[in-house]
């Protein structure tokens, strides 16, 4: 499988990359880790005139853990897996990164590429929604921030405008007592999520004071299971409360069906995975 011919430029700065994108926002494409885009080119599902390699842009790199957490778009899955400061504050990054594909993919694939690509089975969308993340976007008219929960529109579709680059993910530092869990049922071939569940919650004296549950893999886009999260506030993580929250999450999911998993099966998995994720945090 050989891609159609294209030109290639290594962008030297964010401004350079945005300028190149602006020359032909529909025809020119950014490449970061290339682990989604290159197979797409080989299958000729995309034939950009110009590939703009952003992998050398320093502003898109790095993990900063301070009052807020900033993760540059070019941060690889392997870097998220290995970061000790990040693990201490948000261990969910390690939990999720550890479940992405294999070392080859983790060494090259980036969180920014994953979010911008918006594969409905990708892991990071659920994690950044559960953590109430904001995505910083830069384009020809300046910068803006979009809440992660509003970023994903549909299968492979986001609110990124033509000419925009995802710069970084910003996450509020969690309050004391916050607990996190990422679980997924992996597709046996790719490792992608058939259903993935990210949970961020805070327990105070055994009572849930904050909760965000986000689901990926089940539907056309990752989403926040709001009624499930709301149900838990002010309650303990009893078996009954967990079961009701899991049912709410499953009811909200308008599930996809494919050759591997039917919509009904995915709905069932949402219920069981939300239950298991919540139960694992009880007393954790
Ligand atoms: C065998 C295999 C198994 C995989 N398994 C999993 C898995 O289990 N879980 C999972 O979540 N993912 C999985 N992936 C996907 C992998 O994580 C990809 O690396 C990731 O989805 C895309 O990141 P990338 O840096 O390679 O992006 P690229 O392929 O470089 O780009 C992907 C798309 O995003 C755009 N883009 C990239 N960076 C930016 C940016 N900063 N701003 C705006 N647009 C941008 C590109 O133009 C392109 O359209 C798998 C991939 C493979 C090949």
Can you put this structure into words, describing what you see?
The protein is α+β, with helices and mostly antiparallel strands and 284 residues long. The chain has 3 domains: 7-53, Uridine Diphospho-n-acetylenolpyruvylglucosamine Reductase, domain 2; 61-172, Uridine Diphospho-n-acetylenolpyruvylglucosamine Reductase, domain 3, CATH 3.30.465.10; 178-281, CO dehydrogenase flavoprotein, C-terminal domain (Enolase-like, domain 1, 2-Layer Sandwich). 35% of the residues lie in helices and 27% in strands. The protein has helices spanning 14-23, 37-42, 77-82, 84-89, 92-97, 103-108, 111-117, 124-130, 148-151, 226-232, 239-252, 263-281; strands at residues 7-10, 28-31, 50-53, 63-65, 68-72, 134-139, 142-147, 152-154, 157-158, 165-172, 178-186, 193-204, 207-216, 223-224. The strands form 4 sheets. It has a 5-stranded antiparallel beta sheet. Strands 11-12-13-14 form a 4-stranded antiparallel beta sheet. Helix 11 (239-252) packs antiparallel against helix 12. 46% of the residues are buried. The model has no long low-confidence stretch (mean pLDDT 96). Bound molecules: flavin-adenine dinucleotide (FAD). The site of flavin-adenine dinucleotide (FAD) has 31 residues, from strand 2, helix 6, helix 7 and strand 10. One of its GO terms (molecular function) is FAD binding. It holds the Pfam family CO_deh_flav_C. Residues 1-176 form the FAD-binding PCMH-type domain. It comes from Bradyrhizobium lablabi. This is Carbon-monoxide dehydrogenase medium subunit.
């Amino acid at each position: 499988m050989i891609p159609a011919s294209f030109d290639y430029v290594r962008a030297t700065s964010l401004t350079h990359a945005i300028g190149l994108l602006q020359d032909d926002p529909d025809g020119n494409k950014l490449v970061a880790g290339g682990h989604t885009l290159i197979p797409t080119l080989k299958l000729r599902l995309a034939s950009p005139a110009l590939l703009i390699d952003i992998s050398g842009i320093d502003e898109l790199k790095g993990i900063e853990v301070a009052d807020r957490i900033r993760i540059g778009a070019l941060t690889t899955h392997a870097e998220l897996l290995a970061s000790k400061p990040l693990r201490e504050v948000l261990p969910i990054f390690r939990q999720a990164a550890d479940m992405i594909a294999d070392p080859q993919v983790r060494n090259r694939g980036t969180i920014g590429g994953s979010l911008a690509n918006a594969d409905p089975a990708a892991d990071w969308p659920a994690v950044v929604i559960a953590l109430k993340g904001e995505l910083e976007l830069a384009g020809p008219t300046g910068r803006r921030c979009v809440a992660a929960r509003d970023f994903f529109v549909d299968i492979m579709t986001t609110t990124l405008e033509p000419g925009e680059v995802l710069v970084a993910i910003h996450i509020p530092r969690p309050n004391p007592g916050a607990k996190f869990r990422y679980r997924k049922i992996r597709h046996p071939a790719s490792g992608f999520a058939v259903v993935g569940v990210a949970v961020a919650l805070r327990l105070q004296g055994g009572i849930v004071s904050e909760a965000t549950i986000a689901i990926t893999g089940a539907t056309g886009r990752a989403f926040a299971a709001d009624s499930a999260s709301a149900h838990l506030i002010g309650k303990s993580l009893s078996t009954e409360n967990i079961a009701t929250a899991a049912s709410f999450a499953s009811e909200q999911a308008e599930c996809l069906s494919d050759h591997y998993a039917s919509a009904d099966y995915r709905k069932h998995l949402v219920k069981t995975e939300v239950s298991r994720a919540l139960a694992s945090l009880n007393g954790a």
